[in-house]
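Q: what sequence does this backbone want?
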C-alpha cells in the first residue's frame, strides 16, 4: 500500500489499530507505528476557538479560554453587562453593576508569566496567581521577585562575562545575528535577540571551510554553526566519561548530586562525569571528576522512537559549587511550557561534532537556536522518498520539541547528546530540554529534536527522593 494511504487514513483522519495493520502488513511494524501514533500531541492542530490556548491533558486536550468565553473548545460566549477589557498587560477587567463599580485585576500565568520572576501558579476560581522561586532563592515582599539565598544559586553565571570574555547571555541580548569565524574558530561572535522574544531565522553561516585533515587538527570548530563558549560560561555543563576516560555524552548539573542526561547515552557504559570541564584534553584548574553511583533511565524510554529520552545520574559525592560549577534551574510545569513557546531562543552547549560524521571538539562550544512549532517540527520528519517503507516514519511525540533552522547551518550534533537546552528568563537560566536526536546534523530542511523536560518534572522529583531515601536507609 502506498505511503499516501497512511497519510489519508491516519493523519487526515483518526485510524484504528486494525486499519494500521492493513497498511503495515506485519505485527512488528504495526506496533512500532501504533506506539508512536498513540503518543501524538492532541494539540498539534489547535481545536480551541476564539483565541483559546490548547494544553495537553494526558491523551486529551484542554482549552484555556480567554475572558468571556467558555466550553470545551471556547465556543460559548458569556453575556456580561457593560464589560470593558483593557488588552494591555496586566489585563484589567472593569464591570459596572449599579449602584457600585467593582474593579478586578485579572492575572493569569499564561499572560506574561503572571508578572512572576520565576514560578507561577494560577489560583482556583480565577483568584489571581501565586508566584514562587527555584531552590536557592526566596520570594520577596512584592510576592513576585526572587533573590538568591546562597552564594552560587542555580541558573546564574558567576564569572564568564567578567574574566573569560563573552557569556551565554551575550548570544541573546543583541538585536542582530552576525558570525565571523577565523580559520581556527577562535575569533567568532554571534549576536541575537533576548532568549524569550520571538525572532526570525537568520541566514548567517559560519565562515569555516576546511578539509578533513584540517578538521582533525582543529579541535575548536565543532557544534555545527556554533562558536567557542567562555570558560565558566555554562557552569552546569557536564561531560560523561567511560572508564577509559573518553567523553561521549553531555549532561546538565541540576543539584550537587544529580545530573540530567539522555537515556540513549546509557546503552553505552558510563563511569564518571567531569564538572567545570572546558578543555577535553587537558584538565582545567577547577575541574571536578566525580564517579557515577547510580544511573536511572526513564522506564518508558523507547530506543527506536527516542520517546522519554531522559536519564538521571546520581553522583557518588556532591559537586562543589563555584564559579565553574553551578546547577541549571529546573522550571515548574508552567514555566517549562512558557519558555518553549514558538520562536523562544535557547542555548545548546557541548563537545559534539561540527558536521555529520565529523570528529568531536576539544573545547566546549555553544549555539543558540529558536524553538519551532509542532507543525513545522513534524513536517520536517516526513519522508521525502516515496519508496521508503512506512516503518521508517519518525513521529514527534509530546515528549519532544524541535529547535533550529531549516536552512542555516546551526545545530547540535553527534557527541552533544544529553546536553542542555537552556533558556534565559529574567536573569536566570532554566533547563527546558535535553539534546536527543536528529537526522544528520544541520541538514537542509531538518531540525534538531530535544526531550521536553517539563513533561518529566514529577518523575525527576520522585526519582531523586526515592534514591536519596534509599541511600539514607542503606
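A:
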Amino acid at each position: 500500500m502506498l505511503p499516501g494511504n497512511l497519510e489519508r487514513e491516519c493523519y487526515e483522519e483518526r485510524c484504528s489499530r486494525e486499519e494500521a495493520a492493513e497498511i503495515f502488513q506485519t505485527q512488528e511494524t504495526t506496533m512500532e507505528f501504533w506506539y508512536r501514533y498513540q503518543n501524538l500531541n492532541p494539540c498539534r492542530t489547535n481545536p480551541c476557538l476564539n483565541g483559546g490556548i490548547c494544553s495537553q491533558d494526558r491523551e486529551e486536550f484542554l482549552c484555556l479560554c480567554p475572558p468571556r468565553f467558555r466550553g470545551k473548545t471556547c465556543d460559548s460566549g458569556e453575556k456580561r453587562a457593560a464589560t470593558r477589557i483593557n488588552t494591555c498587560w496586566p489585563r484589567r477587567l472593569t464591570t459596572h453593576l449599579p449602584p457600585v463599580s467593582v474593579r478586578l485585576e485579572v492575572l493569569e500565568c499564561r499572560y506574561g508569566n503572571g508578572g512572576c520572576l520565576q514560578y507561577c501558579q494560577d489560583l482556583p476560581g480565577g483568584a489571581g496567581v501565586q508566584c514562587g522561586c527555584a531552590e536557592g532563592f526566596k520570594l520577596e515582599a512584592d510576592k513576585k521577585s526572587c533573590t538568591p539565598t546562597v552564594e552560587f544559586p542555580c541558573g546564574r553565571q558567576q564569572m564568564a562575562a567578567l574574566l573569560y570574555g563573552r557569556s551565554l547571555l551575550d548570544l541573546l541580548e543583541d538585536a542582530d545575528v552576525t558570525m565571523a569565524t577565523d580559520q581556527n574558530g577562535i575569533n567568532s561572535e554571534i549576536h541575537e535577540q533576548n532568549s524569550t522574544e520571538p525572532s526570525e531565522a537568520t541566514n548567517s553561516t559560519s565562515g569555516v571551510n576546511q578539509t578533513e585533515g584540517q578538521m582533525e587538527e582543529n579541535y575548536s570548530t565543532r557544534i555545527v554553526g556554533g562558536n567557542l563558549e567562555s570558560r565558566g560560561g555554562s557552569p552546569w555543563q557536564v561531560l560523561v566519561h567511560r572508564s577509559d576516560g573518553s567523553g561521549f555524552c553531555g549532561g546538565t548539573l541540576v543539584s550537587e548530586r544529580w545530573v540530567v542526561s539522555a537515556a540513549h547515552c546509557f546503552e553505552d557504559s558510563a563511569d564518571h562525569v567531569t564538572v567545570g570541564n572546558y578543555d577535553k584534553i587537558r584538565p582545567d584548574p577547577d575541574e571536578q571528576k566525580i564517579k557515577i553511583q547510580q544511573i536511572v533511565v526513564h522506564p518508558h524510554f523507547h530506543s527506536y522512537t527516542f520517546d522519554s529520552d531522559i536519564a538521571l545520574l546520581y553522583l557518588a559525592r556532591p559537586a562543589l559549587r563555584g564559579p565553574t560549577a553551578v546547577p541549571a534551574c529546573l522550571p515548574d510545569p508552567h514555566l517549562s511550557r512558557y519558555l518553549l513557546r514558538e520562536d523562544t531562543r535557547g542555548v545548546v552547549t557541548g563537545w559534539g561534532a561540527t558536521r555529520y560524521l565529523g570528529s568531536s571538539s576539544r573545547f566546549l562550544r555553544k549555539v543558540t537556536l529558536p524553538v519551532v512549532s509542532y507543525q513545522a517540527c513534524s513536517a520536517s520528519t516526513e519522508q521525502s522518498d516515496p519508496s521508503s517503507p512506512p516503518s521508517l516514519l519518525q513521529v514527534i511525540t509530546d515528549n519532544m520539541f524541535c529547535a533550529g533552522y531549516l536552512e542555516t547551518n546551526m545545530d547540535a550534533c553527534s557527541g552533544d547528546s544529553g546536553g542542555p537546552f537552556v533558556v534565559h528568563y529574567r536573569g536566570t537560566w532554566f533547563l527546558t530540554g535535553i539534546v536527543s536526536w536528529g537526522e544528520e546534523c544541520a541538514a537542509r530542511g531538518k531540525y534538531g529534536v530535544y526531550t521536553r523536560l517539563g513533561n518529566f518534572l514529577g518523575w525527576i522529583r520522585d526519582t531523586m527522593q526515592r534514591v536519596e531515601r534509599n541511600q539514607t536507609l542503606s
